[in-house]
Amino acid sequence: MRFMGKILEIMKKLQFSTFFLVVSLFSLSCENKTDTILSGMHRDASTLLYNVNFKKKPFFKNDTFIKKYNVYLEKSIIDSVYGYNFKISDSIQTIYNFNNTLYIINHSNRSYKKRREINNQLNQLIFPNCNLKKDDLFGNNTIIDTLEDRVFVLKKYEDENEFKNIKEKYSFSLVNNELINITSEIDFQNTSQFISNEYEKLNLNVSIDIETELKQLLGNYTNQKYLEKKESKSHLKLFSDIRGVVLENNKQKELVEYNSKVIILDYWFMACYPCIKTTPMLNRINEKYSSNEVQVIGVNLIDRNVEKLKNFVNYNKIKYPIFLTNESPLLVKEYPTLIILDEKYNIISTLYGYDENKEKEIFNLIEKIIQE
Questions:
Q1: Distance CA 51, CA 67 (A)
Q2: What is the pLDDT of residue 58?
Q3: Domain 7-225 adopts which CATH fold?
Q4: Coil, helix or strand for 357?
Q5: What is the rounded CA–CA span in Å between residue 228 and residue 212?
Q6: What pLDDT digit, counting tens, does each position of 6-15 carry?
Q7: Please, which pLDDT band fits residue 346 given cuts at 50, 70 and 90?
Q8: In sequence order, which residues have a C-beta less than 8 Å from that of residue 357 and are 6 or more positions away?
Q9: Whether the Cβ atoms of residue 153 and residue 144 lie closer than 8 Å to each other
Q10: Between 31 and 133, residue with greater pLDDT
Q11: How far apart are CA 264 and CA 369, in angstroms?
Q12: Which residues pair with 68 in a beta bridge?
């Protein structure tokens, strides 16, 4: 599959959704029909406006998350990441991409953040117009079905380690030759995840002045980087306000009761695959040093099913304490987030995401703090 490959790419870019029943198999005639559909998907249009109805049931969750996005795209020869300047809005925020920079606008507190990185969820929202190719729809384990006004393509993929039953479905309209929906599904550690994107109300005759809109917003909104500096407290006071429950013994505890020369807070949750990949590294750090030297603490703000959490911790052999709390004065929004503190709870370093090369960096930092 062109836009996926290794399982990490599957987790980042593939959308996992509900399974559907296929009743028949077509070959060349259906492939020609899909060629016609792809030719009508307006990838060459200079501007596009449409809605995306997004649904997701994460791993280890029973509830389905639902959100609606309004997406505007305009082709850009300057943009080397997405190929488009764009504006994506939901009920809470607006995200602009202009000249290779993402601007995340928060209307509730009139602030914004700037980013220069690929956001894979945004990739999925612009997926049908930028990325879909014929090779994505055909190949091994592809089943095609037709109704009077639609074509369905089901693709199945081989299991990848712990990832099982990987499926993806596309549906196309034969009325207007447009992509209607992408739904996909995957199983992992006895739980499943699905994601569904439904595309609607495609309009080719709309032009939005992104540059002017953005300039006006940035002139009236506050850069969140400076907002956070203005509102920051002393580090010890910041962490002394955090109270929670230790998963292992269900006892109430204050975070600052953990005393070591180095304290590593791992902000994580069960449905976060990069968080799971980070666990072995944190186990090795926790095992190498005594509790007086280094204490790793898994801080969970999201999961509240204690039985599922304990099963998850046992299955993934997590050896450090798990601290459940509702209090997040640091406003952690990216997972995993590793916050490295000294014994006075001063923040020494903050690291985001999973990177297999990060372990050496953390060990070097620990040694430096311990020797001081």
A1: 11
A2: 87
A3: outer membrane lipoprotein receptor (LolB), chain A (2.50.20)
A4: coil
A5: 26
A6: 333 544 443 3
A7: confident
A8: none
A9: yes
A10: 133
A11: 12
A12: 53
